[in-house]
DUF7770 domain-containing protein
Amino acid sequence: MSSQEELPMRASELGYDITKLGLAVIPRAIRDMKIRRVDFESDYNEYQSVRIWMEFQSQILPSEERYRPASLIVAPCDFRGVSTSAIRVCPLKCKPDIVVVDLLQTLVKHDMQYFDFIGLDGCRDFVTQAVYQFREAGYVETSIDKSPWIEEGFPVSDAFAAMGLRFQGEPRGLPFACPIDAGRFGKYTRVVTSAMPYVGTWRARELEEEQLGWE
């Protein structure tokens, strides 16, 4: 049996939700955890979508350890669309015939599941590289899709640029520039293009300048 027959769900919507960090309850807490959202074209048993993200294996490590080991999580959901915990949403333009397992196989093919966070600030590095590989495979475009889920006033039009932002809880969704910290991939070789605002890059400096127009 082929993998498509084992996991036949086709994606109707692909993007990532930007949610609060962990159990933060401070009203103005910075929230930037990126969770990829894949909505199914039709229901699969009782499920309508999956969420894909990296999660810490443990937050209790020696203080001198810079990196935090993570595990790849794939969680089915019984709803489509935006999570109620999302602060901002970044939908991507995707091919109409994507099978969900193809996305997962892309991650595994490139050994991207072997990833360690730097600090406790979300998985923007991992998601940036995953979106890059999805684009290279022809599954998505990195321009942000103007779907019903995108709020007016979203400050950038490119998914990579959006990775270089964080958003506040109060005022809800207020953006500010924050370059992507590089985590550590165990086997995958990170690709950094001119569109990716990693720490120290020209694109990161551009976002800091553009931020003046958002305030």
